[in-house]
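Form 7-S
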Amino acid sequence: GRVEVSLLLPMSMLTALLLPAASYVLQRAGPPLLRSPPVRGFAAARGARPAMAEAAEEKRATADVIPGMVAMEASPATVRAPGCPSCEVEWVAKSKDVEGTEAERLAALRGSDMAAYIGEIWEYGQHMNDTQRQELALTPDMECRRFVIDASTPPTPLMEAVYNATMVRVPYEQACYVCGPEQAMLLRTLVAIARPRQALDIGCFTGYASSAIVDALPRSAQLTCLEVEPTWTGLASELLEGRAASFETGPAIETLRRFEEEGRRFDFVSLDAKKPMHGEYYNASLRLLRPGGVLVMFGMLLFPTVEDQQAMEALHEVLPNDTRVSTAQLPVGCGIQLIVKTEEVDPAAPPLHYASQRADGSVGGLASQPPADGDAAQLERTRFELELELAAIDRLVQADGVPLGGAAATGPGTEALSSAGLVALAAARRQAAEPPAEEAQP
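Output:
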């Protein structure tokens, strides 16, 4: 008798056989619409978080890369109540239903129109090739990532709580844009090295990166978080309640201009916002950053849209040639750009102290103040070192006896999507793009 074979097996086999030949033929002879634009970075579905509020009525630019494949529209920002079932589990269960429907559709198409079926396989192959490269990072890369996480200082209970709340209370297709645990651990270390009194997080999302920053600050320091989406600001402020973090909701560029008018000065800036705006955010951040201050930019290697990729590739050209800074790119998570402001820094001069916060906590008008030098600068450094030691003791006491688990072992990027997962993801995008069915007439 005839042996029935699983649908996904012939799909994967056909993809493997068709992609090399079809890619060659289409790149050489196909119409321009079938040719992918040149790619220097990686285009991926994860690794850089979209600005949900600003993109709510825009379709993802994946459609520009894959002819015939309509991308999923951005979902409205949603936060579930504490204690709800995991949104990740819900998303996986939902994707299984979509996957089953898609498998039935493809099976019917295979029996009725083989040419159309092969076209569908080609679309999946292109989707995997052009927009899912991070998902194709197979076992060696996943093992390397786990090794990096295991070799880092474990997350604090605060970092763990914010990460797990994001994965449980935010729908998974949005939560997966949270920065990776290894990025948060690196960010925390960079803050400890920079020793800021005033830190700025542009694009705080649910507050995971913010938790890494605030956990490396002494009690007297302050973190200011900017986010355009009120839903995310609400969740982040809830999760970071009682910590030295304040929140501003609205377009970041307007807030940054206001800070500049107020004469504010920052020692450390984290930037992970809408990628096409990163160039403006970068210049605005440099104007606010003290000489010798540190700027960390996320999303330098992995991009969810073509628009994002073009914007970040422009920065790739600008940053190495910017004489105001010294910079290096690190292939950690979605890619991190480490930037130190060298403008107005004299390496031969004695260490200076640029005040970003007064003893009473006020911050306005300090950008125009000259730096302290000599004994005054040394006194400020000594005071800050003592405060850091006290903060380290506080963190040790808070973490004592608190079991950790979640951020170091699970979440986006610790496992590559299977071929079935890619089918489900693409099917969900196609399903979301279809016009809603008209309600039946009574």
